[in-house]
Automatic annotation (TrEMBL):
Lineage: superkingdom: Bacteria
GO molecular function annotations of the record: CoA-transferase activity
Protein name as catalogued: Coenzyme A transferase family I
Key words of the record: Transferase
Similarity annotation: Belongs to the 3-oxoacid CoA-transferase subunit B family.
PANTHER family: ACETATE COA-TRANSFERASE YDIF (PTHR43293), CHOLESTEROL RING-CLEAVING HYDROLASE IPDB SUBUNIT (PTHR43293:SF3)
Signal sequence annotation: none
Source organism phylogeny: Bacteria, Bacillati, Bacillota, Clostridia, Eubacteriales
Pfam families: CoA_trans
The keyword Transferase appears for this protein: yes
Length: 263
């Protein structure tokens, strides 16, 4: 019997999982990045090592953590570190890829998690701040950005720069002395964006089935670059992958329920 097709959150998690290769060390963020990483581990990448910001290193399989500080992230971990040492995993080159969300993402992959509107002392909405975001953005080899894409969340100019991406583009990140490649992709409900290899401007790489470039641009506050060839169409998740996602990864629908639960 056919199962219900993927909702936008499930498609997003599937797209995140597709960027994880077997054997990678993955620095996992709260929410859909945890779903994507666990989905990858249960499907095509069983040998990844999952590193959590709060200190759990490669915990045993268990229930879906409610955050990167949840008890499940420490379940029979091979190693438990204090947070500075957990970030040092990235600084010392042990992390292959990390996932980061933000309230705002600009055309160069810079992130804002501080405030929306106004200034530092007269903001309209105060957010969580950096946490470990700046550490990961500055130190990890590859960064994948995660967010629900609309013009307010993908503005031409950030209200505050919390965590660096490609800064002002070109080689500005390297000149600033930051480690790693910086952002390599952005995964949203629309598909996957990447960054032009020279200008470091965000561009469309692949779009979810049923969408098009015009929809992507309408959901973005700056001009998206287009790829040289045809835009790749991302397939819908197959039934066997959706079954793993729904029954094994997040059976309580903590993060994949759509519309999300009202808190």
């Amino acid at each position: 019997m056919a199962i219900a097709p993927a909702n936008p959150f499930e498609q997003l998690a599937f797209n995140l999982a597709s960027l994880i290769e077997d054997g990678m060390v993955v620095y996992v963020g709260t929410g859909l990045p945890m779903v994507g990483a666990l989905l990858a581990k249960k499907t095509h990448a069983p040998n990844i090592t999952m590193v959590y910001e709060s200190g759990g290193q490669d915990p045993w399989e268990g229930p879906m953590p409610w955050s990167v500080g949840g008890a499940a992230t420490f379940r029979r971990s091979a190693l438990t570190l204090e947070m500075p040492h957990s970030f040092a995993m990235a600084a010392n080159g042990y992390v292959d890829i990390c996932f980061q969300g933000a309230a705002q993402i600009d055309m160069y992959g810079n992130l804002n998690t501080h405030f929306i509107g106004g200034g530092f002392h007269d903001f309209k909405h105060r957010l969580s701040g950096s946490g470990g975001g700046n550490d990961l953005a500055s130190l990890t080899e590859k960064v994948v950005l995660v967010g629900l894409q609309d013009a307010s969340k993908f503005p031409a100019k950030l209200d505050f720069l919390t965590s660096p991406g490609h800064l002002t583009g070109g080689d500005s990140r390297q000149k600033a002395g930051l480690l790693g490649q910086g952002p390599i992709a952005v995964v949203s409900q629309l598909g996957i964006m990447d960054f032009h290899p020279v200008s470091k401007r965000m561009r469309i790489k692949a779009i979810n089935t049923g969408l098009n470039a015009e929809i992507c641009q309408a959901c973005t506050g700056f001009e998206l670059l287009m790829p040289d060839g045809e835009i790749e169409q991302i397939p819908i998740p197959p039934d066997d992958v959706l079954t793993v996602l729904r029954e094994e990864v997040d059976p309580q629908k903590i993060f994949i329920q759509f519309p999300p639960r009202v808190k």
